[in-house]
Amino acid sequence: MNFKYTAIAFALVGTLSACGGSGSEIEEVIAPLLPETGFTFSATELVTNLTDDVIVAGYANLAAQGVALLSATQVLLNSTSQADLTAAQEAWKAARKPWEQGESHIFGPVDSLSIDPHLDSWPLNTTDLQTQLANNSGFDAETIKSWNDDVQGFHTMEYLLFGDGVDDNTKLIAELTTAEREYVIALAEVFRDYTAQLDDAWQVSHNPQDTNALPYADLLKTPGSANNTVYSSELAVIEELINGMIGIVDEVGNGKIADPFGDSLATADTSKVESQYSWNSLTDFADNIQGVSNVYHGEFTGSADKQGIIDFVAAADSALSIRISSEIDDAIFKIQAIAGSDDMPFRQAILDESGRERVATAVTALTKLQTSLESDVIPLLSDWNAQ
């Protein structure tokens, strides 16, 4: 244990020595202070890694998936092949994954540029959607951008590609009308544009109206610099990242799952289930928490070991860092287990007694994780002797 010594202690030694005229030796008296509190950790590598290899890489992947989704939907215009519709459905799911994982860091341009509501508004307004289909043809991307968010984005495309999701999530190519084909292609073009804008905001300029504005990635990596008006310190960046993790854990457990789950079987409401048309809900929820894992571990699954929030936590409490990792893994496992042995979609699970038990188990795991992040990790910010 390291101690500091006060100037008073050394002054006392000097005084005693001066009084020792008899020639007797005076033993030095050292007055120790309490040990320093808090912990030290250099966050520069962590912030750089999370910014470049998790956040920016994730949005670059999302933009690439947006291009692929547009290509897949364009094939549908004159197609009679079920394989082409299946390919478009898979392209939708592929784009969904980086978006859902990215909800663990849904701050910055995704918020300031309103990308989130443009791409992921829920619930879908099926009444207005049917009105648009009935009254329009030759849909174009720029017109759709002027419409309400609840008739564009992920879930409008999902409804058109998969059907209503009540009995199954398999739509036949013959069921796709000409208007639906034109609409989904235009929607995919809008999606391509917004995901490209989000990617540019992180890598080129975070303000499309100001070409001199820094990429948002640079704002995270240079806190406290003269031209950084967003983050004053590395502590502010780490706090943003941890709060992002907490936010999505809370949303999954207390919103996406709890709202349709209801207080009882009688109050369960499948209309509130997000991604219900594709039966992709459980994958969405698991990807949300996988996104938390990405930020916590500083890497995508299978990547080389790099610094993440786990290293910050470990600098203060190694046992806590391991426990949080275990709770993240457990929450993902419990979400996936909701499907049961019958691979039950979430919208069906909340109407099934056994399914509801599995849902409750998953919610308990999410609550435990959220409590740990709020009660055990957030306080570390106050204990950190940040540089």
Describe the structure.
Helix content is 60%, strand content 0%. It is mainly alpha-helical. Helix 11 (234-261) runs antiparallel to helix 12. The radius of gyration is 27 Å and the shape is globular. It starts with 6 loop residues before the first helix and ends with a helix. The relative contact order is 0.12. Mean pLDDT is 91; it is low at 1-26.
Please provide a brief summary of the model.
The protein has 387 residues and is mainly alpha-helical. The chain is built from 17 helices and no strands. It has helices at 7-18, 44-74, 82-101, 109-112, 115-120, 126-135, 141-145, 154-162, 178-203, 216-221, 234-261, 281-297, 309-316, 318-336, 346-349, 353-377, 380-383.
Query: Could you say which overall geometry the principal axes of the C-alpha atoms support?
Result: globular
Largest sheet features: none
Strand content: under 5%
Q: What is the tally of beta strands?
A: 0
Could you give the order of the helices and strands? HHHHHHHHHHHHHHHHH
Provide the helix percentage.
55-70%
**Mean of the pLDDT scores?**
91
* pLDDT < 50 runs, ≥5 residues: 1-26
C-alpha Rg (nearest Å)? 27 Å
Q: N-to-C terminal Cα separation, in Å?
A: 22 Å
User: Structural class of the helix and strand makeup?
Assistant: mainly alpha
